[in-house]
Write a structure and sequence with these properties.
The chain is mainly alpha-helical and about 400 residues long. The chain is built from eight helices and four strands; from the N terminus they run H-H-H-H-H-H-E-E-E-E-H-H. InterPro entries: Mad1.
């Protein structure tokens, strides 16, 4: 980091390069310093990323071991419940077996040898079969119980192992977390340092651009090293001669402008032209000016009369067209013409044509509310016959028949 106090600014400004060589060296130093700062920034960023990645891996391992421990605890609880159910069932079967033996013993003690019958013998056989089945089922239940107890022991051992691993991981995580505050503080400090280095780099770039602009400006202004360069002044300097000619031309043009202003003022007043102005070359006399004014006035009067005649003829031509064709033609916009029939029922009933070809050789009918009311005539005369005069004639007959029928 560079110092940013006022004394450093003064020393920096005093150490600004005065020659192009000093500026080049200063720019090279700035570039080297910028590369060193970038390398340091990359190293700090990579170390911070590795620390964050290690912390994330430890957290993932802790979550995985916690999930496995929870699953093993659920399995152990289910096996313990199954073992308790099997033990209860074994006790019930043992009690049932003892009850059956007691019943058979009571039968044997009450009956004599002569009282035995075939039915009792069959029942005894059935009871013995049932007792054998009960013994087989009881042995099977005992085997299942022993297997369940073995599984339960295995699950307990695995659960204890997972608990030990979880404790070790928690201890490692806690030790990592205790060391992480220093790492986080170091990362924050490194980030602040990176930001400061970035701001310093931008400031140095701005100073570099300012120095380059200053160097270019000095070069354009003709600055040079007086200790190494000698200036030779020519006796006939082209620049001095050009400046002299420019001053002479300026004086001559200024005098001519003054003379012309005097002539304009004299002509505006209508008085005689001064001798010095009249003697100037290419300047008309007062008589010529008067004749020119009369010619302009007569040309303007003739133009006005022609406009009046043209306006009268145009109105006359429009009236004749309206009387002969029955349509009043008005120009709405460029290349668009509105036709209104003298037999129209409403003032808004009109047709609009647009000139599409060169010099108005082709006309196109635009859609209006009135044109939508005569689709049969458009279909017949425009689309099939391709004749605008036939369409206008048929429309005139149609409107005339409507008025006469009314």
């Amino acid at each position: 980091m560079l110092p940013t106090d006022d004394s450093s600014k003064v020393s920096f400004e005093s150490s600004l390069p005065r020659t192009p060589e000093d500026l080049s060296r200063f720019v090279v130093e700035l570039q080297q310093r910028e590369l060193a700062l970038k390398e340091k920034n990359n190293a700090i960023t990579s170390s911070a990323r590795s620390l964050e990645k290690a912390q994330q891996q430890l957290q993932d391992e802790v979550r995985q071991v916690s999930a496995q421990l929870l699953e093993e605890r659920k399995k152990r609880e289910s096996h313990e419940a199954l073992a308790r159910r099997l033990q209860k069932r074994n006790v019930l079967l043992t009690k049932e077996r003892d009850g059956m033996r007691a019943i058979l013993g009571s039968y044997d003690s009450e009956l004599t040898q002569a009282e035995y019958s075939a039915q009792l013998t069959q029942r005894m056989w059935e009871a013995e079969d049932m007792v054998q089945k009960v013994h087989a089922h009881s042995s099977e239940m005992e085997a299942q119980l022993s297997q369940a107890l073995e599984d339960l022991g295995v699950q307990k051992q695995r659960a204890d192992t997972l608990e030990m691993e979880l404790k070790m991981l928690r201890a490692q995580t806690s030790s990592t977390e205790t060391s992480f505050p220093f790492c986080k503080e170091e990362v924050d400090a490194l980030r602040l340092k990176v930001e400061e280095l970035e701001s310093e780099r931008s400031r140095l770039e701005q100073e570099k651009q300012a120095l380059e602009m200053q160097m270019e400006r000095l070069t354009l202004q003709g600055d040079y090293n007086q200790s190494r360069t000698k200036v030779l002044h020519m006796s006939l300097n082209p620049t001095s001669m050009a400046r002299q000619r420019q001053r002479e031309d300026h004086d001559r043009l200024q005098g001519e402008c003054e003379r012309l202003r005097g002539l304009v003022h004299a002509l505006e007043r209508g008085g005689p032209i001064p001798a010095d102005l009249e003697a100037a070359p290419s300047l008309p006399s007062s008589k010529e000016v008067a004749e020119l004014r009369k010619q302009v006035e007569s040309a303007e009067l003739k133009n006005q009369r022609l406009k009046e005649v043209f306006q009268t003829k145009i109105q006359e031509f429009r009236k004749v067209c309206y009387t002969l064709t029955g349509y009043q033609i008005d120009v709405t916009t460029e290349s668009q013409y509105r036709l209104t029939s003298q037999y129209a029922e409403h003032q808004s009933d009109c047709l609009i044509f647009k000139a599409t070809g060169p010099s108005g050789s082709k006309m196109q009918l635009l859609e209006t509310e009135f044109s939508r009311s005569v689709p049969e005539l458009i279909e017949l005369h425009l689309l099939q016959q391709d004749s605008i005069p036939a369409f206008l004639s048929a429309l005139t007959i149609e409107l005339f028949s409507r008025q006469t029928s009314i």
